[in-house]
Amino acid sequence: MEKFIEILKSCGYDAHFVKTKEEAFELSKTYIKSGMSVGLGGSVSVQEIGLLDFLLNKKDITLFNQYEDGISMDENIHRRRQGLVSDIFVTGTNAITKDGKLVNADGSGNRVAAFSYGPKNVLVIVGINKIVEDVEAGFKRVMEVAAPKNIDRMNKKAISFGKEPTHNIDNIANKFSWVKADDKDRIIIILVDEELGY
Predict the structure, then answer these.
(1) Alpha-carbon span 191 to 196, nearest angstrom
(2) Which residues partner with 95 through β-bridges?
(3) Which of 14, 30, 46, 168 has its CA 20 to 30 A from that of 89?
(4) Chain-centroid distance, C-alpha 122
């Protein structure tokens, strides 16, 4: 992993390797400063390390949480847009290639957009299960692993709220990107030596 982290650093990422979810959580907190505005991309990995709950309960930041229950679709869209001009955008990734490309699919597009341009920083939580050989393998992982699991997760959530399950491959994976770091250290990667997310 040390060699992989060096590759990521050489690509322009602020890259770190930690052994556990707990270490990832402690390190990620150091990037969330008082007074910051924080955007969110959908991420099971962020939730699994405890960072989402931390952000939801941190009172000295402005969190653009488009997932808050009960908000209107107009408010949801507004918060997604605000997240794209935030101080830091917190998310996971669908895959990361061995030469340092982040591969993602998205429904609304806010997450793939944030990787390319907008937020001052992007904090990415990545489990070792997301490492793939190349971009082609990354997109294969998106379509065969990440997308089906996310469709199932979101449809189960809809059913639990008494709603019609409407998520499918066409509306959760219709915008794609593969990016390398742009401005040096703008994208922060915390690679965790555990399987996280989908």
Answers:
(1) 10
(2) 103
(3) 168
(4) 9
CA–chain centroid gap for 158, Å, is 21
User: CA triplet 5, 84, 177: central angle to 5 degrees?
Assistant: 55
The pLDDT of residue 151 is: 78
Which helix (H) or strand (E) element contains residue 179? strand 175-179
> Per-residue pLDDT tens for 24-71?
999 999 999 999 999 999 899 999 999 999 999 999 999 999 989 899
**First CA to last CA across the chain, in angstroms?**
20
Closest-CA residue to 104 (of 165, 30, 45, 166)? 45
Query: What are the C-alpha distances in Å from 156 to residues 71, 85, 135, 165, 168?
Result: 20, 31, 30, 7, 12
- Structure tokens, 22: 């707990």
**Measured between alpha carbons, how far is 110 from 102 in angstroms, rounded to an integer?**
15
Tokens found for residue 135: 């971009």
At position 114, the amino acid (one-letter code) is A
CA pair distance 69, 144, nearest whole angstrom: 29
